[in-house]
Amino acid sequence: MLILLTNDDGIRAPGLVAMYRELTSLGEVHVVAPETVQSATGHGITLSTPLLTQRVTVEDTFTGISVDGRPADCVKLAVARILPRRPDLVISGINSGANVGINVIYSGTVAAAIEAAFLGLPSIALSLYLRNEIPLDYARTASFAMKVVRQIVAAGLRGGQVVSVNIPPLRKEQSPTGVKIVRQCTNAWIDQYEERTDPRGRPYYWNRTVFHLGATDQDTDVAALRDGYITITPLQFDLTYYPMLREWKDRVWMVE
Predict the structure, then answer these.
(1) Does the pLDDT at position 256 exceed 90?
(2) What is the torsional sign of CA 167, 59, 78, 38?
(3) pTM of the full predicted structure?
């Protein structure tokens, strides 16, 4: 099995390194990832500037290709030009931070996985919910992630399908509550901005929002992650709103 591994935290991110070490037990892993952090860049791609690439070795663990672009760029370029053949599986992550609720829309991690699905490939986005009071342990997180990846592959993840997996923060003595298949929470998330003034007296604003798992229905990714579950959410990239499509399609629409 040929696996493409990417992320949005950059090619040197500890979550990607930890996941690489686990994935080598599943197949031949090729890393093509952003040169710099691309968090919350969504599904943007680079059109007006060249995509500079460099071969880099990270922590004496792997040698991969860094791309001076966004996560979706990495997947597109890897499949089109860099990999020896089309990958059998694309993994994006492990991201430093949860990608649940509407964060899925902003996430570069999820965008990379969706781009792979665009291209007809099976893909999985992996994210770790961070809490300040719980020390990071990417090696342990990757071991849990790998168990879930194997189960998703065994369940029959097909080309063009994409799932988002979120892993709760755990202390050494803790284990996940379990694994849940859940829908995406769609509650609105209100950002907070602090107003400041630059040396010339001009106002500017700094986003000071800190993500937390808020109140939501119990069948959502936010609720399950809050309760300590590893969450699996199947995603789609068809944004058509079918109820409105059915409601409006027989109306007479006038040009004048």
Answers:
(1) no
(2) positive
(3) 0.94
Q: From CA 180, how far away is CA 225, in angstroms rounded?
A: 9
Beta strand extents in 102-192 (DSSP E only): 123-128, 162-167, 178-181
Whether the per-residue pLDDT at 20 is higher than 80: the answer is yes
Is position 137 within any domain? yes
Total tally of structural domains belonging to the chain: 1
Question: Considering only CA atoms, which of 135, 159, 7 is closest in space to residue 70?
Answer: 7
207 token code pair:
């986003």
R_g over Cα of the chain: 19
Cβ atoms of residues 180 and 139 within 8 Å: no
Q: Please name the residue that has the structure tokens 């430093």.
A: 96
Please tell me what DSSP assigns to residue 184: P
Assigned domain for 13 exists: yes
Asked whether the beta carbons of 167 and 140 are under 8 A apart, the reply is no
CATH code for the domain in which residue 126 is found: 3.40.1210.10
Q: Evaluate whether residue 9 is within a structural domain.
A: yes
